[in-house]
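Worked example
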Amino acid sequence: MTITSLSVRIPAEIKAKLKAQAEKNDHSMNAEIIKRLEESFNLPPLTAKPIQSDSIELPVKDVTRIKKVLKKAVKELTKKENK
């Protein structure tokens, strides 16, 4: 394996987190960064199925609330149509 150097700029907060994790794992920051990069290549894609551009994901509680509002609206419209 050929080793090369890489210069990157990262936020100070991320550097501090990397340093803390490296110390916790008892290895250098360089080893911590390499470990994390290697692991990132083995992760599954963030979404297993394609998401339509016009779709959104909502928390279950919001979906439940929306369903209740829609059911109430349908009842009201049905009442008006039957009059």
Remarks:
- Residues 60-82 form the longest helix (23 residues).
